[in-house]
Amino acid sequence: MLDEEEKEEIIDKYQLHDRDTGSDEVQIALLTERINELLSHLDEHAKDKSSKRGLLKMVKKRKTLLKHLESESEERYEDLVEKLDL
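Request: output the structure for the sequence above.
Response:
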């Protein structure tokens, strides 16, 4: 789970303006970080089915947000995909 400092760093890095905490870019970046943490957890605990289910839900939500961002602004989408290395 992300602690407050890590979350603030991610928000600062991907926000569009000073008070932005909910734009597509911020949400996708936070989800990506949580997905990466959960993947490392599942490497150690392969039989943790509830975590795997949560991971699949997060991946689907990220995919939906990426589709929305791509339809809204292809330039912002490509920038974000490059930054996050997706």
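The chain has a mean pLDDT of 92.
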